[in-house]
Amino acid sequence: MMRVFYDSDAVLHTASDEILYRDIDDCLSDLPYIEGYVIEENGEIAGYSMVAKSYTTEYGGLLIFIEDLYIKEDFRGLGIGSSFFCFIEEKYKGQAVRYKLEVEEENENAISVYEKRGYKKLGYFTMSKEV
């Protein structure tokens, strides 16, 4: 699923298999800042998510960054994404002060789901430097 997600138009930069395997290993390790979820629907694997935890000085507290949220095509439109957001928000209720994610502007279906959950576009852009 990660390969399908990272090779799709939903992601700007693809990731090597080495990085994807490292991501999975990190989720299964005792690292405190990354969590991986397998999403099931009626006993079938419907998708996955990876969530990173950080601190936001803007809001003074725990930041939950939804790094990946992928729902298999056959399971889209069933409310699984919204249910996942409810799960994460309940898990970090009273702890997190901000939830954040990235989305490609062309991914209108995902944007619709996110907006329904109260997410808004930020007024600035993200810069990064890879090493």
From TrEMBL:
SUPFAM superfamilies: Acyl-CoA N-acyltransferases (Nat) (SSF55729). Residues 1-131 form the N-acetyltransferase domain. Transmembrane segments: none annotated. Keywords: Acyltransferase, Transferase. Pfam families: Acetyltransf_1. It comes from the Bacteria. PANTHER family: DIAMINE N-ACETYLTRANSFERASE, GH14572P-RELATED. This is GNAT family N-acetyltransferase.
